[in-house]
């Protein structure tokens, strides 16, 4: 009897325990399912974040590619514009030649030349020469006869650069433009300050908004004229005192090859003499010979251009003095610099009778040579040194 009662008590107990165990198993399965779903969502979110990062990086790379290609296209646009202008100039020259030959040539080669036509041509040539003499002040009638002395003012160590005074101003300031690509001018109160060992600490720094290319820049009447880095043939006119770009121009035909074979960084060399601003450059169309262009420094307009017989091969520098171009040559390995090509734009110099002029007491090469018409001296940069040359003169033949 007791056993029977005990059985009736245990059956409900075990039934209750088994029911609770079944609920526990169902809850565990549900938790496991929820956990798997969360893991799946986390993986998807992680993949989504990674995809977003990949897309952002890909977009950045794409933007850089587009910007670089746009920059190249912009350069091509400038080059094409320059080429078109150069082509138009050459077409105009060819048309003038065709018109000339057409006016003096007939199908009958035995016909006599019209004397009136010859007189007209001679008159036009004389008129052109007269205008050039008026423009260039023909009273400037001396030429270099020899380079007699030098003074090494300082040695900054930089292999390429320019240093100069402003011949159009009455102050004694010295300007240093170091390197073939840079945008900082150092201005010194005088040459003594420049010669001090800690000269950079006493210099006024002028930062240009656009960097220069090469070493052919010049300072004249408070303005820096230079070839803009990144351009084919753009010349910038920069106001040093006001610190802004005053004007700019494109020099037709320039910038495609170095003006001097031994100074390949310089594509356009700017110069000052008694007549003002000049540009010296070389063109493939002239066989690599040097071309001179007279520029109005106030309007930045081309006034006249001359094709010279001076080669850019083995040339390292050049300068203008009294309407005359003097080209300095050297050896590729360095040696004694010498002037052995001279070109007078007015034809007042017999270039075949001029002796070769050697630079005294130094072996090496020049990065730049600039003539200062106010002091009648040459400011040169040679092998990291800043040099002043004096010279002898004589009357033009």
Automatic annotation (TrEMBL):
Signal peptide: 1-21
Domain of life where this protein originates: Eukaryota
Compartment(s): Secreted
PROSITE patterns, A to Z: OLF
Disulfide bonds: 140-322
Pfam family, any one: OLF
A GO cellular component annotation in the UniProt record: extracellular space
KW Signal (keyword) present: yes
Coiled coil (UniProt feature): none
Biological process annotations from GO: signal transduction
Occurrences of domain Olfactomedin-like (ranges): 139-395
Keywords assigned: Disulfide bond, Secreted, Signal
Protein's name in the database: OLFL1 protein
Organism from which the protein derives: Casuarius casuarius
Source species taxonomy: Eukaryota, Metazoa, Chordata, Craniata, Vertebrata
Name of the gene: Olfml1
């Amino acid at each position: 009897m007791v056993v029977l009662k005990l059985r009736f008590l245990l059956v409900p107990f075990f039934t209750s325990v088994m029911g609770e165990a079944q609920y526990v198993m169902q809850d565990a399965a549900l938790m496991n399912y929820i956990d798997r779903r969360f893991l799946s969502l986390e993986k998807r979110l992680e993949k989504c974040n990674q995809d977003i990062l990949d897309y952002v990086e890909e977009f950045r790379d794409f933007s850089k590619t587009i910007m670089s290609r746009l920059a190249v296209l912009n350069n091509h646009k400038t080059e094409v514009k320059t080429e078109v202008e150069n082509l138009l100039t050459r077409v105009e020259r060819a048309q003038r030649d065709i018109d000339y030959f057409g006016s003096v040539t007939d199908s009958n080669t035995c016909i006599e030349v019209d004397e009136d036509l010859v007189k007209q041509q001679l008159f036009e040539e004389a008129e052109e020469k007269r205008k050039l003499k008026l423009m260039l002040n023909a009273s400037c009638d001396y030429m270099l006869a020899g380079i007699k002395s030098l003074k090494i003012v300082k040695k900054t160590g930089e292999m390429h650069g320019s240093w100069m005074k402003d011949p159009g101003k009455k102050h004694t300031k010295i300007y240093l433009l170091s390197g073939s690509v840079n945008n900082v001018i150092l201005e010194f109160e005088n040459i003594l300050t420049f010669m001090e060992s800690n000269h950079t600490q006493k210099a006024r720094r002028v930062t240009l908004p656009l960097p220069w290319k090469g070493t052919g820049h010049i300072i004249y009447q408070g303005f820096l004229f230079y070839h803009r880095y990144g351009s084919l043939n753009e010349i910038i006119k920069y106001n040093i005192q006001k610190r802004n770009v005053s004007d700019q121009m494109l020099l037709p035909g320039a910038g495609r090859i170095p003006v001097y074979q031994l100074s390949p960084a310089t594509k356009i060399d700017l110069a000052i003499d008694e007549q003002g601003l000049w540009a010296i450059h070389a063109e493939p169309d002239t066989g690599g010979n040097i071309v001179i262009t007279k520029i109005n420094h106030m309007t930045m307009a081309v006034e006249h251009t001359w094709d010279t017989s001076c080669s850019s091969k083995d040339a390292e520098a050049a300068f203008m003095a009294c309407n005359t171009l003097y080209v300095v040559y050297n050896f590729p390995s360095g040696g004694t610099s010498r002037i052995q090509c001279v070109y007078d734009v007015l034809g007042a110099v017999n270039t075949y009778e001029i002796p070769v002029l050697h630079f005294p007491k130094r072996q090496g090469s020049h990065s730049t040579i600039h003539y200062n018409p106010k002091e009648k001296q040459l400011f040169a940069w040679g092998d990291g040194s800043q040099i002043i040359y004096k010279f002898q003169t004589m009357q033009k033949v």
